[in-house]
Amino acid sequence: MFRVYANASINLSASAARNPTDGIFESGNGMRNCSAPITKLECRSEKKGIEGVVGVRLQMGGNGPFVLLPEEPLHRRAWVLQESVLSPRRIDFASTQLYWECRTSLHTEGYPKSDDGESFLTSSGRKLHRLAARKMESNPDIVRYFRTARDPMSWWYPMLYDSYRDRGITMDHDILPALAGVAEEVARRTGYHYKAGLWLEDLHRGLLWQPSYSSKKTEDEFCPSWSWASFKTPSRDRRLDLDSYAEGHRATILDVDIKVDGDNDFGRVKSGAIKLECSVKALSDWKEPLLPIYNEHGGDFESMRMSTRYLHSDDSVAYVPPPVGRILCTTDIRPGHVDACHADMIERRAICAQIACFKTPDRRATRNPGGEKIEHWGLIVYGLILEPIDGTGQKYRRIGIVEIAKEDGLADGWETREVVIV
Predict the structure, then answer these.
(1) CA 52, CA 63: separation in Å to the nearest integer?
(2) Cβ(6)–Cβ(181) under 8 Å?
(3) Which of 217, 141, 155 minimizes the C-alpha distance to 183?
């Protein structure tokens, strides 16, 4: 179906429609009165010899009665994202005005002559299609913001985490198929190989997704636990500091075995297993007084991140950094009682498996305002928390993320062995 949108001349979107019976024109008139002038003022210029009427109305964007395009009912649906990304031209019939977007310009009914910005949506195809297709190197550095994306992978991660995963979908087994068209386009532009929502050439970064808040597993029993598609949407990501890889502590990928349901490599999967050689350590090896710190719930401010250690004191007041000399663990499904979490991990025979080390700007000494060259970097080792699913201790399922500040020395001296994650 995505090829229909990609090859169409124009896509007309009933963005304000709540269901198939609302109608494109009726739903598009729902709040149009809000954009009408509140009052009119007669104006004239004797010097210019002109006269006319100026209408005064509410500001079309920002706060107020207006619904921004990403919040319209149609754009809250996961299936619709690939329509928006792949259509070369689109007219949105929104609740207060019309929107036009194509590969070269964007306009609104309220400001028809304005062509500001990159897109009305959190992510759209306009930015993607302006990025040159080229074979990319493995494990690239990326930028985390959609508007500053300089390559397809820098575009992919903000699209996935900030837009697609924040939309709803009815059937859990459609989470991957609903994104298949977009994934195929990114694969064409990068030469990368798609593996159940992750990219083989950037698998280390791809494995380190995590819901910002405690989420629920999908009912799709075939989706592997290491894929973000194994959790229900909508579910925004914690967005760990994974822009730039650092040397060392990187797991070796021995095999990725994916069986798809049908002949579409970008669609639903029947099974998936990853075999890694990596540094591992049982959570039972951590004893008092240096037990791991466990995140309890989530959110941008409530949830601790190891990267906040490297903020300048003027910038870190809103965040709680983990204590020095402790590792930080965040389970995908947050614990009901965080005090009992470590005992639960020991009972489940959970282990930590190092995946990769990433650089984060070290601003503790100087703030390094935006635009200045970063002189100092902190190093954080990220890994997966795994739970064994058989008696051999070789097959595991993913249950969380571990973050370790390399300067603490807590990531050294671990056992190296092979693990299979399903």
Answers:
(1) 29
(2) yes
(3) 155
The whole-angstrom distance between residue 112's C-alpha and the CA centroid of its chain comes to 32
- Distance CA(182)–CA(130), nearest Å, equals 15
| pLDDT tens profile 88-110 | 999 999 988 899 999 888 888 87
Mean pLDDT of the chain: 88
Rg, C-alpha atoms of the chain:
24
Tokens of 402: 């571990």
In eight-state DSSP terms, residue 311 is S
Please give the Cα distance from 307 to 211 (Å, whole number): 17
Tell me if 211 sits within 8 A of 231, measured CB to CB.
yes
Stretch 51-80: mean pLDDT = 80
Whether residue 11 contacts residue 90, with contact meaning beta carbons closer than 8 Å, is answered with: yes
Q: Where are the alpha helices (DSSP H) in 12-161?
A: 24-28, 81-86, 125-129, 152-158
pLDDT digits (tens, 9 = 90+) for 297-337: 655 556 789 999 998 877 666 677 888 999 999 999 988 77
Question: Which token pair is 243?
Answer: 């822009």
In angstroms, the CA 188 to CA 6 distance is 14
| Beta carbons of 242 and 218 less than 8 angstroms apart | no
